[in-house]
């Protein structure tokens, strides 16, 4: 009885994760089909998030305790707001900077995915984790090698490929888990 409840819970959890994998795949296709639009859109989203963070810093400054905390949060909030407005006015420069940061993030993500594979290599579907790590490392090297000349279009293409590969690898690994759960039932 407890095994059936655990199996049902795991199937529900994998169902949500499968939905997330499908969303990643769809976003990857959109980014690949419209790379320039997706790249500039990412720059606007980043600028907006920075602007919102600045507003949050300013609105929470009065309750930060003491004049030092108030002054610090106010100054940080002002810097964030100025930076967010500047990035909204100059999305291409923001996109070029974002491209570099994303290259570093992918480098670290790929490295950690490969390390994680070695601890999971005996698990069904773990080869997909290694594949994801290798592809992510290759994407990082592609970003950092071509930076900044191709940032305006490459970022969306590379993010699209990463989303697509991550979605597919997660989907395949989760389907392997589902097959195992169904076979065990």
Automatic annotation (TrEMBL):
<dbReference type="Pfam" id="PF03729">
    <property type="entry name" value="DUF308"/>
</dbReference>
<dbReference type="InterPro" id="IPR052712">
    <property type="entry name" value="Acid_resist_chaperone_HdeD"/>
</dbReference>
<dbReference type="GO" id="GO:0005886">
    <property type="term" value="C:plasma membrane"/>
</dbReference>
<protein>
    <submittedName>
        <fullName>DUF308 domain-containing protein</fullName>
    </submittedName>
</protein>
<feature type="transmembrane region" description="Helical">
    <location>
        <begin position="127"/>
        <end position="144"/>
    </location>
</feature>
<feature type="transmembrane region" description="Helical">
    <location>
        <begin position="12"/>
        <end position="32"/>
    </location>
</feature>
<keyword id="KW-0812">Transmembrane</keyword>
<feature type="transmembrane region" description="Helical">
    <location>
        <begin position="150"/>
        <end position="177"/>
    </location>
</feature>
<feature type="transmembrane region" description="Helical">
    <location>
        <begin position="70"/>
        <end position="89"/>
    </location>
</feature>
<keyword id="KW-0472">Membrane</keyword>
<feature type="transmembrane region" description="Helical">
    <location>
        <begin position="38"/>
        <end position="58"/>
    </location>
</feature>
<keyword id="KW-1133">Transmembrane helix</keyword>
<feature type="transmembrane region" description="Helical">
    <location>
        <begin position="95"/>
        <end position="115"/>
    </location>
</feature>
<dbReference type="InterPro" id="IPR005325">
    <property type="entry name" value="DUF308_memb"/>
</dbReference>
